[in-house]
């Protein structure tokens, strides 16, 4: 018998890694916009990125961390 929890976590991990790979190719401006969307979704008002989301690496880690958390497995780029 297949463990359904393990199957879901594996699928979620694959989805999070897929998101990370796609965003590695995204332009810097798109990453910033996506970070702002995530921040608004979690209740943070504002139209500018905070100081800790100024670099491409910071933005990729934030987005990937959020995606992997949402998909059930915390990962980092």
Task: From the structure above, extract its key features.
0% strand, 77 residues, 3 helices, disordered N terminus, mainly alpha
Topology of this protein?
Layout: H1 4-24, H2 28-41, H3 56-70
Helix pairs in contact: 1-3, 2-3
Poorly predicted regions: 1-9
Distance N to C terminus:
33 Å
Report Rg. 14 Å
The arrangement of helices and strands along the chain is HHH
Number of β-strand runs: 0
Silhouette: globular
How many helix segments?
3
What's the structural domain tally? 1
Structural class: mainly alpha
Give the integer mean of the pLDDT values.
76
Helix content: 55-70%
Largest sheet properties: none
Give the amount of beta strand, in percent. Answer: under 5%
Describe the 3D structure.
The protein has 77 residues and is an all-alpha fold. The protein has one domain. Helix content is 65%, strand content 0%. The protein has 3 helices and no strands. It has helices spanning 4-24, 28-41, 56-70. Helix 1 (4-24) packs antiparallel against helix 3 and helix 2 (28-41) crosses helix 3. The longest helix has 21 residues, at 4-24.
